[in-house]
Give the backbone structure.
Amino acid sequence: VLSHGGTLKAEHGTGRMMAPFVRRQYGNELYEVMWALKRLIDPAGILNPGIILSENLETHHENLKVFPKIQKVADNCVECGYCEPICPSKDLTLTPRKRIVLQRELVLAKAAGNTSLAKEIEREFAYDGADTCAVDGMCATTCPVSINTGSLVSELRAQSASPIFKSAWKLAAQNWSLFTLAAGTALKIANLIPGLNKYPTGGSIRKGAPINDFDAIFFPSCTGTLFGTSDSAGAFMALAKRAGLRISIPAGIDSLCCGTPWKSKGYASGYEVMSKTVTDALVKVTKGEQVTIVTDAASCSSGLAELLASQPHLRVVDSIQYVEENILPKLSITKVRSVALHPTCSTTSMGVNGSLTNLAKAIADEVFIPENWGCCAFAGDRGLTFPELTASATQEQANEIKAREDSFHIS
């Protein structure tokens, strides 16, 4: 570093690494002044000993922290903690850094033959580390080396998943239309029962509307069938029609999914089934031509883009971005007074928060984005099975929104 005109710095533990080279950087005179001040302030040498100022010229070769290998996706973690403030489970259980640290401690405990400690870590990690991880990938957006701890958790879930659940979800992938219809119907029935009507009601099954000479293919999210609390698919089609765009919905759309439910839960066999089903269906429809595929849920857009990564001619675009670029310029809009806007983890990871904000500004005189916005941690069905996770993740944001009286709340 010094031979190339660089400058020494000391943070995240590098004060010990650079200590033998401080004299070389600053010269003998200034170096002795530093030591004089150090001895004056800390005569016993108890404050940060051996850091920055050290008599040991080999200190950078000693006491090195060794990280045991856990999973390739997380082995580069240096435990800096940049991921922690953005994690939705930080106030409930663990942060990404702590999840990685515990996995490393588990490896060390097993290597040392400490079975009691290993069992305790595994027992505590089941809920604190795996169950309450939203697998949203927000940690990767702030990590200096882009580590997605959610991917680590997905791998761990895959390793510990029950064979019965694996088989059930594989069966669901093979019969997705029937599964979503049954789940949506069950939620509709539950919504009629006192005490259960706090949960979202079910929606309607998706229907194909294939046409020729289309401007884009629409891939409506199956969450509209499972949770029919809004009609984003219908709204998108209505706006596209108003803008004069021809949108095709593939036949058999009710059997297709972006694959996120299987990916996040670690059900690899089910994901493979759905991945092949979706890829084959869209390749058949597009016939190898360059085509834009639009979906109406950001998490589905992200999942579908990953699923179709091997098909470069298929460009997956979230409806937010598509509406901003292709529909908004063709519409005449009457603005409302104000909207409270919640950017999502998926819009953040996909880089479309700018488009989301622009759309909000196009429909409202005032756009309020909560200071404490972040991942809601609902994560498909995780907010149903572990409601305390979503409650913790959204508490501060909810308090901000409750203190206002906005015309609409959008996400």
User: Anything to note?
Assistant: Residues 333-411 form one domain. The mean pLDDT is 92.
